[in-house]
Amino acid sequence: MNTRASFSILLLLCGVSQALFLTEQKLADMLITEPEDVDITTKILDSNNGSTELLIEGDLVFPKTRNALYCFNNNCLWKKNSKNLVEVPYTVSSEFTYNEKRTIENAMMTFHSKTCIRFVPRSSQMDYISIEDKDGCYSSLGRTGGQQVVSLNRYGCMYHGIVQHELNHALGFYHEQTRSDRDQYVKINWEFISPDMAYNFQKQNSNNQNTPYDYGSIMHYGRTAFTNQAGMETIIPVPDASVKIGQRQEMSNTDILRINKLYGCSI
Predict the structure, then answer these.
(1) Burial of 144 (0-12, 13-18, 19+ CB in 10 A)
(2) What is the torsion angle, in degrees rounded to the nearest 10, for the CA atoms of residue 77, residue 83, residue 84 and residue 87?
(3) Quick one: which of 89, 201, 220, 237 could link to 243 by a disulfide (CB 3.0–4.6 Å)?
(4) Which residues have C-beta within 8 Å of that of residue 160, sequence separation ≥ 6?
């Protein structure tokens, strides 16, 4: 074998080795796991503490075209295509790193595998969500028309559960603890909530779709949300105060059921 042939083979082997390394690195990046004790409520509220947006319930953008938060009607739901799939066009800011984009995409995959929701890269659609690195974790409620921002701050919101939480808002879902019948399931400790924060616990005229109250919903805030005294609980389950509130890692089965019921998915 001449020198030129040997050199060519060596270059080929180096290229294969480098490609394998990059592939393994990408797989490793995708398999990064989050700590089990990620507190969605604390992360969201901390991230939004300095936000310039007018937010309701901690992470819902105050509607500029409606007097109150209300969804569950044809005007604020995303539309089905000819294949009976609900398309939600989106863009992702170039400010996000490769790993951060993977976190967002992986959070979307549960919707794709268990519902008829399909987040699709925007081409020319007029209505779409724009996922951006802004000053907190927040979203509008449902489809508002045109470009609507879903903010996922790179330094406080890059968690699987938080991404799903904000995407659920964009689909039209409230927080669990503000649903219309919540007083049957949780007690709100008003004594530990500052008067100027009380509006965050206002019950909403929600469509509960004949589904049970879900303490484990990805949309349920934790026990100390908006507390004015460190460690004091503002939300207590009734009648069993020991019930665990909130679900840190992934949408619950009831969260998925509600999406399928609201959008008429045949999954």
Answers:
(1) buried
(2) -20
(3) 237
(4) 34, 103, 106, 107, 249, 250
Based on the residue annotation, tell me whether 176 is a catalytic residue of this protein: no
Per-residue pLDDT of 174-203, as tens digits, reads 999 999 999 999 999 999 999 999 999 999
Structure tokens at 225: 């949300």
CA distance 37 to 34: 9
Catalytic residue among 95, 166, 191, 250: 166
| Residue found under tokens 């449902």 | 142
Tokens 């049957």 identify what position? 184
DSSP character string of 10-55: HHHHHHHHHHHHHHHHHHHHHTPPPPTT--HHHHHHHHTTT-SS-E
Distance from C-alpha of 175 to C-alpha of 211, rounded to nearest angstrom: 14
Q: Is position 169 annotated in a ligand binding site?
A: yes
160 is in an annotated binding site: no
User: Cα(116)–Cα(97) distance, rounded to whole angstroms?
Assistant: 28
Residue matched to tokens 């066009």: 89
The reply to whether 220 sits in an annotated binding site is no
Beta strands at 128-132 and 235-237: parallel, antiparallel or unpaired? unpaired
Kindly report the number of other CB atoms within 10 A of residue 67's CB atom. Answer: 6
pTM: 0.85
Q: Are 188 and 235 in contact (CB under 8 A)?
A: yes
Encode 166-198: b = buried (16+ Cβ within 10 Å), e = exposed.
bbbbbbbbbbbbbbeebeebbebbeebbeeeee
Determine the 3-state secondary structure of 191 from DSSP: helix
